[in-house]
Design a protein that fits this description.
Length: 126
């Protein structure tokens, strides 16, 4: 992680069940966002499932791209868990972390994104 990590992460423009729009990134269902931009979040890349939930491998890309604060969405009905090892990894890197239902996670992320090197994982369904 660079000491000169960029600030200003892409903002989530809209959110509805199964659909998100992110400035400069596009439209899709789930996203990984970070100070360098973002991309769709494909759970199959790391074997993510609702339980145990967000895995350490899911957040590593955010850290590699300069995130100093991370927002993890739990899904619109909070069915997506967060593996305790993920929180341990973030804590070991002194990363501020927020977990919340997706609508609230987007609100938190959008508040942080303009001025902080924010990263986020967003799940727009259950």
């Amino acid at each position: 992680m660079s000491a000169e990590a960029p600030t200003g992460s892409p903002r989530v423009v809209s959110l509805s069940w199964g659909r998100m729009e992110v400035e400069g990134v596009g439209t899709g269902k789930d996203f990984k966002l970070h100070p360098a931009g973002g991309r769709p979040w494909d759970w199959n890349e790391t074997g993510t499932r609702h339980s145990p939930g967000v895995l350490p491998a899911d957040v590593e890309e955010l850290l590699d791209r300069g995130a100093a604060v991370v927002v993890l969405s739990r899904g619109m009905q909070e069915r997506l868990g967060v593996d305790p090892r993920t929180l341990e990894l973030l804590e070991s890197h002194s990363i501020e972390v927020h977990t919340a239902e997706t609508t609230e996670a987007v609100r938190i992320y959008n508040a942080l994104a303009p001025t902080r090197p924010a990263g986020g994982l967003f799940h727009s369904t259950c």
